[in-house]
Structure formats: structure tokens, C-alpha cells
Specification:
about 90 residues; mainly beta; 5-stranded mixed β-sheet; 4-stranded mixed β-sheet; disordered N terminus
């Protein structure tokens, strides 16, 4: 088991965190998109993180985090990448 902090601290936690092959994204306004075989996390147009897709087993998104349709389609095609979203009210 390992946990790697990515990027600067924002608010009360890390921008992104990879834990047990799951990428947790809690930065509001972040946009996840597919670029080649990598997941790219952009915040306000700047690339904050790029992770090879084969390293990930899941995505957990908190709040206002957007995912491109191409990334969602690729996750569905692969059948191995699970995606969970949590809204502030749920």
C-alpha cells in the first residue's frame, strides 16, 4: 500500500492523491481528460497531473470535478476503471 501526494496543498488536503491505484480528485473546477493513454488533470487550464491510464484502477471525484466524454468512454471500454462521484450534498 502506498500514498503519493501530487501537487501543492489546497484547502484541507492534497490536490490529488493516488492511493491503492485509485486517483482521488477534490480540487473544485478540475477537468480530467484522456490524452493518448494517460489521464490528464487540468486546473484553470494548467496541467497539474498526468498519470498513465494502466496505473489506475479507479477514479473518485469530489464536488465540481469534470470528466471528458472520451475518458468516460475509455473507462467503459476497458471495463477495469471504476469511477465514483460525490456531490457536496450527498
Amino acid at each position: 500500500m502506498y500514498a503519493l501526494p501530487w501537487g501543492p496543498r489546497t484547502g484541507g488536503g492534497f490536490l490529488n492523491r493516488l492511493l491503492l491505484n485509485t486517483l482521488f480528485v477534490q480540487t473544485q473546477g478540475a477537468y480530467l481528460r484522456l490524452e493518448g493513454d494517460t489521464v490528464r488533470v487540468e486546473v484553470e487550464g494548467a496541467v497539474r497531473l498526468q498519470v498513465p491510464l494502466h496505473h489506475l484502477g479507479g477514479l473518485v471525484l469530489f464536488g465540481n470535478v469534470l470528466v471528458s466524454p472520451f475518458l468516460l468512454a475509455r473507462c467503459a471500454e476497458d471495463g477495469r476503471l471504476k469511477t465514483c462521484t460525490y456531490s457536496p450534498r450527498a
